[in-house]
Amino acid sequence: xxxxxxxPRYQVxxxxxxxxxxxxxxxxxxxxxxxxxxxxxxxKLLFHYYDKDFNNEADTPDxxxxxxxxxxFCFLDIRSPGLGDAAMYLCATxxxxxxxxxxxxxxxxxxxxx
Amino acid sequence: AQSVTQLDSQxxxxxxAPVELRCNYSSSVSVYLxxxxxxxxxxxxxxxxxxxxxTLVKGINGFEAEFNKSQTSFHLRKPSVHISDTAEYFCAVxxxxxxxxxxxxxxxxxxxxxxx
Lengths: 114, 116
Description:
The structure holds 2 protein chains of 2 kinds. By secondary structure, chain A is mainly β.
């Protein structure tokens, strides 16, 4: 009974070829997050949705976009992937944006850029 | 500036030995503190959190952590580790602000390797 599901587990794309990663949740949480985690580094928040309200981090490149068509699904679009975008992408959810709320993570999508 | 520092990137330890993973933070505002664990090829899972009250917090899998406000630390401990505890451990700090968006910052992680 996975609660935050990310597909695919591994994604390979070519330099400059658009790619979309998907995330779904069965928790009915209001907030969904996308994190980028490069090898041996901390997860870095790219953006989050609070309900339908999109919140971008100041240092997230324009190359990264997101869509949340409904409560359950959230997509990460990389318009023109570069070699530096190869990383693990983690989706997470929380009930609210309160600072004390814990995050529920998916298993991640490992993106390779050739 | 607000930051989180995990002092050890790698901690090897023998099975059944005790372990401490260190975490320090810097903040000018109140904080909530978390430890997450990441097993190979998986997402992060919450081990424990400190919000208020007792400074000693117990979590899953026999782990505990102690909040030390004067030293701005939140070290993770386990008295006897198992092979299955081998994983990456992330300290995370939520800086409490009056804004609408939470600010959660992860440390760089500590790889715990339990040796037989």
